[in-house]
């Protein structure tokens, strides 16, 4: 306990914003594991969100519509939503996505009020260091640096939750982490990290498989950033002296140079002996997440978020090279022969090989060690330019019950959309309460290698056994 906080109450929900869960990671603490926050006297107001971690600007206004947040290295804050009178309720901790480069727990899309109220749960959203500040593999440069500090930030937030959430009406023995995209990939890593053991009792992974660089890949990125900054390895200590903006500008140049604007992520978790000693999917297969229930799934058209009709898309041969670089896979030309020879080909490959295939591989790695449930989100909205298909991120407003986000995108909320949101929320809530997502209205059998039962969320939700088995067998030829 670091001190008392004062929140607000709104429509039956108690809300606390901007609670520090770690010391500001500035000065000598830049690139280091998070440290406990300083205690305070009196009562601290928790009315406003804390600063957002440094990231590329939100030029389209999609992350923070209607305003521009404060960006700062001092960004390790979390937010809590709890029903009025909450006592020993299950806790759901949200880890946001954004390619490990963008995002924040304070994004309006992730407002936890509706989920907390409808589910009788306590919702927590967290920030973690991003891009070069959170995922630069600096441990090889000496004991003054840590690697995977963005993941260590998430662990610090979970430690804070376990130690303090009872004071907000939550049960520290029932903590479910849920996250999407890089948030889901973060959860994969947390399930493999020794420091995270005992901090969570359930995991929900939305549209993000196991992902981690090999040490030599991570070190190459770190040295590449040093080169962009004109710093040699022997003088890496200058990283602590530079303005954060100079590091972000250099990181932007490095991202562009290495990816050419492709979906590849140069900042991501890295296998590191002190923090993430084994690639997550292998660690889980070896029992690192034994006993932890897992709910995992993807959207039917993830890749159409990254490859879109009318957008500037490279020729098919160049797109395949981009995917090979992004996914770390060998020649994809044979696989590509099974997909359209236009922009939809790379979109389909990214969906099936990276997202869907990766989710199945991770699910299979946990089957001997804990119960697993698999889903697929298929819902699309006719005539909408982006949400016509079930693209990456499309399920998030349904899970949170934040349908106003869809209205802001120009959609009229129909009864089937409300029903879909209720079905997803009820399943996620049931999982948080009891470790199983099935409900009386929507039974959901466990996933297994024989039937591969998958809950399809569409206009009507139903269980399908082994959806698209031929495609599954095809893509698994490319998954090591």
From TrEMBL:
SUPFAM superfamilies: alpha/beta-Hydrolases. Belongs to the type-B carboxylesterase/lipase family. Residues 2-463 form the Carboxylesterase type B domain. Pfam families: COesterase. GO terms for molecular function: cholinesterase activity. The active site is at residues 181, 302, 392. InterPro entries: AB_hydrolase_fold, AChE-related_enzymes, CarbesteraseB, Carboxylesterase_B_AS, Carboxylesterase_B_CS, Cholinesterase. Keywords: Disulfide bond, Hydrolase. Its EC number is 3.1.1.-. This is Carboxylic ester hydrolase.
């Amino acid at each position: 306990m670091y001190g008392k906080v004062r929140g607000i109450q709104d429509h039956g929900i108690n809300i606390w914003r901007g609670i520090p869960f770690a010391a500001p990671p500035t000065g000598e603490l830049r690139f280091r594991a998070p440290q406990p926050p300083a205690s305070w006297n009196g009562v601290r107001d928790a009315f406003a969100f804390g600063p957002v971690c440094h990231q590329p600007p939100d030029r389209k206004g999609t992350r923070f519509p209607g305003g521009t947040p404060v960006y700062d290295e001092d960004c390790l804050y979390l937010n809590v939503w709890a029903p009025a009178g909450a006592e020993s309720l299950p806790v759901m901790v949200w880890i946001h996505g954004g390619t490990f480069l963008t995002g924040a727990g304070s994004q309006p899309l992730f407002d936890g009020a509706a989920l907390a109220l409808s589910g009788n749960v306590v919702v927590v959203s967290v920030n973690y260091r991003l891009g070069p500040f959170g995922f630069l593999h600096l441990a090889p440069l000496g004991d003054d640096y840590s690697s995977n500090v963005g993941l260590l930030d998430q662990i610090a937030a979970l430690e804070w939750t376990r130690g303090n959430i009872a004071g907000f009406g939550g049960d520290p023995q029932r903590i479910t982490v849920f996250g999407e995209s890089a948030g889901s990939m973060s959860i994969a890593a947390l399930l493999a990290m020794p420091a995270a053991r005992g901090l969570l009792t359930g995991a929900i992974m939305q549209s993000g498989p196991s992902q981690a660089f090999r040490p030599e890949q991570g070190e190459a990125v770190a040295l590449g950033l040093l080169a962009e900054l004109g710093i040699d390895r022997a003088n890496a200590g200058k990283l602590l002296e530079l303005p954060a903006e100079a590091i972000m500008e250099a990181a932007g140049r490095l991202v562009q140079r290495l990816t050419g604007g492709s979906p590849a992520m140069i900042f991501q978790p890295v296998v590191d002996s002190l923090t993430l000693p084994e690639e997550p999917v292998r660690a889980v297969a070896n029992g690192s997440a034994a006993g932890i229930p897992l709910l995992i799934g993807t959207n039917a058209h993830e890749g159409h978020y990254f490859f879109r009709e009318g957008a500037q898309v490279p020729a098919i041969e160049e797109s395949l090279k981009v995917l090979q670089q992004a996914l770390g896979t060998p020649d994809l030309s044979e696989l590509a022969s099974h997909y359209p020879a236009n922009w939809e080909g790379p979109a389909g490959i990214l969906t099936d090989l990276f997202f869907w295939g990766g989710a199945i591989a991770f699910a299979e790695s946990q089957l001997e060690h804990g119960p697993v449930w698999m889903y697929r989100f298929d819902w699309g909205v006719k005539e909408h330019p982006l949400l016509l298909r079930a693209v990456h991120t499309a399920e998030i407003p349904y899970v949170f019950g934040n349908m106003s986000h869809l209205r802001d995108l120009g959609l009229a909320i129909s009864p089937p959309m409300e029903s879909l949101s209720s079905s997803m929320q009820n399943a996620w809530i049931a999982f948080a309460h009891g470790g199983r997502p099935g409900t009386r209205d929507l039974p959901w059998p466990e996933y297994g290698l024989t039937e591969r039962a998958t809950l399809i969320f569409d206009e009507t939700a139903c269980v399908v056994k082994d959806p698209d088995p031929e495609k599954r067998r095809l893509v698994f030829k490319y998954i090591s």
